[in-house]
Amino acid sequence: LVSTSIPQEPSKEETMRKVTSVLRRRGLPRFTVLKRSFANRTDENERDIRIYLESADKNDWNALLPLGIFSGVNTNPLLLKEAGIEIKEPVFPNLRSLIRSAVDDYPVNEIFIQAWGSTKDELVRTGLIARMFDRRVVVSMPVTFEGMQAATELIQKGAKVCMTAGHAQKQAVMGSALMADYFAPCVSGISESGEDAVAQCIAMQQVIAGMGSQTRIMASSLQSADEIVELSKAGIKTFSVSARVAYELVNQPLTTKMTDELEDISQGLIAESKETWAESKQ
Predict the structure, then answer these.
(1) Distance between CA atoms of 250 and 131, rounded to whole angstroms?
(2) Is the dihedral of CA 238, 242, 248, 250 positive or negative?
(3) Is residue 198 helix, strand or coil?
(4) Which of 70, 98, 135, 257 makes a 20 to 30 Å CA pair with 127?
């Protein structure tokens, strides 16, 4: 009997294996083009540096995320208010649009959304709502009694959590004990209290390292690029920076001056070559 079954089309994996086999037999290299996302790191042996843009303003996103240095964006209720984003019950269309834009249009590895509510149950509910829109959402929780209770439940449900608004070393102990993904000291708030914010953040890092914890210190609300430099020297690798500080990181007057001078020379050389070419045609 002759089989009348229609042969199935080979899968992409089978086709790729056949192509690779042919290339190897012919001694030709196989080239693979990888899609790059912002500061995406998959090799655990690479330096795991994470910088987050502290803004909910898409104008900031459009200008700064393409620099390629940011792992994602960090927001809080104040930043949402400044960007004109309302939290509307019951389906939260503006919040959903912000999250989907971050992960679909740029894309980012993580976006931090702070839960809202005055009780543990409210914080859990709103944290889960934010996570519902995308699994790349990190739920920020205040280091309060209710916030810690809510964080515990969210972590048990598999959510990524950042304990935020940290102002004291003892709070870093609690963030580590909770096994939170991040602990975010508020640098500007610590400075306003009269403390040395950089020294406090370094001490928090030492607390977490001493406990053998995998919780990451994420220095947030930074006031200058110099603070990032000093914290980096102490081994802190995660930062949340405003658009103003991000521009300060990038802009260096001496570099700009040298670049302009070299560009002037380049344009002069181009003009001379055009003149020489024109004379040769006469």
Answers:
(1) 32
(2) positive
(3) helix
(4) 70
